[in-house]
Specification:
With 591 residues, this protein is α/β, with parallel strands linked by helices. The chain is 42% helix and 9% strand. The chain contains 24 helices and 16 strands. Helix 5 links the parallel strand 4 and strand 5. Helix 5 crosses helix 10, helix 11 packs across helix 19 and helix 12 packs across helix 13. The radius of gyration is 29 Å and the shape is elongated.
Length: 591
């Protein structure tokens, strides 16, 4: 049969090929050659190791994925290689500011009904406050201490900073903040003294030590603290962090703003150093980004998140996590799906590039120890090579007065982040929340928070889409997370992040912003959020109790080293609302 088929094939007549078919075939060959050359030519993009890194660490390669056991298996579905361009591209609107910000201003003056301190302060009634945590957590305690003293009609003693903390910063209030300004600026609101009266070297009255539950309302203070204050005359509230209700009457909220945005100012030496760093950043370009990057090993372990580092990551972070005995068993995938995990440095870089920031932009990075070190930072630095920190901008001699004190170093980062043209964060920790509120109060300066829920699923699928599609989705998901006015519904979130009682709008804003905002809400709530009735991109807020601590209460550079000295920690006072194990946690955990 085989020879017969060959003879039959040899006898087939050769058909004539028309000229048009010949030309079409030739054109097809040319197109194939050009396509091959285009594929082989090096494109204009960031270094290719970004895609390689995703393949092995984040399970997002075009042809490689991680198996359940941590091993790599080959996918049978061919997809387009995902690559980020160097340029930011053309983006509608101003990346560096809001067109509506001119219609809003901070307003925190007291009303005519708010009586002066002289009229309401009761003699021989003193409130002592012992703050807790790192710099930013202590800042919230200082702000709320003034309001607590006002509620109790008491004289406030300048708050004590957390000098017993594991990060060993013995700085007192006057070494971080301008204490004279603090007292004088608030003199009409609350009477403040630097210290209790002394006879010789001893305090006339020893403070009675107690603690109030978190989110304690004015009535809570009047029922729990006032009776003790009337009897003992001097009361110290310890571990004073988030011990005041989030929602208060307007005059008390405005008092919070006067403390936070006007009375609290860093010392002259810290302020001048921070302003010098800002000048150096501005000298490098017209605008600069300040990035608050939270990706420390302790914080990642506490969060229970997983970033695709295989068995090594699980082992390293799991060993740290075991040191917190009261932590619940976490579901890493669920944590990320719910937007409760910080973005990786690479994900932050991709988000910024998709929003329109090009590789020419200079970035100031405020961060602690990054898990994975330079290898983890490499993709971000490849996307944004102009990478700076206080250590690269200032000499060792210039930083010497601050470098031995974590709170003072954190204060420098706070100043630069506050003075940046755009503030970006990969987390929702205390510093991020406080700066977000501050930047809203002072003109709605560009503040970018990641929409963690939406971006997580997008990062998971990015290898299966073009850059243009990815960037378009990032811009859609980030509506409502860019620091625009009225992004968050009044009363939602922490007041320090969303001080709506202290932001006033002019008449023009009410017509322009409302029409623009409601049109966005109609579209965004359906296509972006899938949740009607919620403001565009409004973040989800989780209400944590002392029994369910959140990783956002940790602060970069201020996380206590977890070592043998943990067992030597002591509980100074007993709190009915906090379990002993959680009190120990609070000693370890900063903001």
């Amino acid at each position: 049969m085989a020879p017969h088929r060959r003879r039959h094939h040899d006898r087939c007549p050769i058909l004539a090929v028309p000229a048009t078919s010949f030309l079409a075939a030739a054109a097809l060959v040319v197109i194939l050659v050009l396509a091959l050359l285009s594929f082989l030519a090096p494109p204009l993009m960031d270094p290719p190791f970004l895609s390689h890194r995703r393949s092995h660490r984040h399970r997002k390669s075009s042809n490689l994925t991680l198996g359940d056991s941590g091993g790599i298996r080959r996918s049978t579905v061919p997809v387009e290689i995902f690559r980020a361009p160097r340029g930011g591209g053309s983006v509608k609107g101003d990346l560096w500011g809001s067109k509506l910000s001119k219609h809003y201003r901070g307003c925190s003056n007291a009303s005519s009904k708010f009586l002066a301190a002289k009229a309401i302060t009761v003699p021989d009634r003193y409130l002592v406050i012992a703050t807790s945590g790192g710099l930013n957590q202590q800042r919230t305690g200082i702000v709320d201490s003034v309001v607590a003293a006002r509620i109790l009609n008491a004289t406030l003693v300048v708050p004590k900073l957390d000098e017993r903390s594991f990060w060993k910063d013995a700085s007192n209030f006057a070494e971080i903040f301008d204490v004279d300004r603090f007292i004088s600026f608030l003199s009409k609101d609350v009477k403040i003294v630097k210290e209790l009266s002394k006879k010789g070297r001893k305090v006339v009255r020893t403070p009675y030590n107690m603690r109030v539950p978190r989110k304690c309302t004015p009535r809570c203070y009047q029922n729990r603290v006032l009776p003790v204050l009337l009897k003992k005359h001097v009361v110290q509230l310890s571990k004073f962090d988030y011990r005041l209700a989030n929602k208060l009457e307007t005059d008390l909220q405005k008092l919070r703003c006067r403390v936070n945005y006007h009375a609290l100012r860093f010392t002259k030496s810290i302020q001048e150093m921070g302003e010098m760093l800002i000048r150096k950043m501005k000298a490098k370009g017209k605008h600069f980004i300040a990035l608050h990057l939270r990706f420390e090993p302790d914080m990642l372990a506490f969060s229970g998140c997983y970033y695709g580092g295989g068995e090594r990551e699980r082992r390293e972070l799991g060993a740290i996590r075991k040191r917190w005995k009261t932590l619940h068993t976490s579901n890493p995938d669920k944590e990320r799906r719910h937007g409760k995990c910080p973005l990786t440095p690479e994900e932050v870089g991709l988000m910024l590039r998709a929003l329109g920031f090009g590789s020419e932009v200079h970035i100031y990075v405020a961060s602690g120890e990054i898990y994975g070190g330079e290898e983890t930072l490499a993709p971000l630095k490849a996307l944004f090579p102009h990478f700076h920190s206080k250590e690269t901008l200032a000499s060792k001699e210039e930083l010497a007065p601050f470098s031995s004190f974590s709170s003072r170093m954190a204060a420098l980062d706070f100043i630069v982040c506050d003075g940046s043209d755009a503030f970006v964060t990969n987390n929702n920790g205390n510093m991020a929340r406080i700066l977000a509120g501050r930047r809203r109060y002072f003109g709605h300066k560009r503040t970018i928070r990641p929409n963690g829920k939406k971006l997580y699923s997008l990062f998971q699928r990015r290898a299966n889409m073009s850059w243009e599609e990815f960037a378009s989705k990032v811009r859609a998901y980030q509506k409502g997370f860019m620091g625009e006015p009225k992004e968050i519904r009044p009363g939602r979130g922490e007041f320090h992040e969303n001080p709506t009682s202290c932001i006033c709008e002019n008449a023009e804003a009410k017509t322009v912003a409302d029409s623009d905002f409601h049109s966005q809400t109609k579209v965004g709530s359906q296509s972006v959020n899938g949740n009607l009735g919620m403001h565009v991109g409004e973040p989800t807020y989780y209400n944590y109790t002392d029994e369910d601590l959140d990783w956002s209460d940790l602060d970069y550079g201020e996380v206590a080293p977890l070592g043998k000295n943990i067992v030597n920690a002591t509980i100074v006072d007993y709190d009915l609302f906090v379990r002993p194990e959680d009190s120990l946690l609070e000693e370890i955990i900063s903001d």
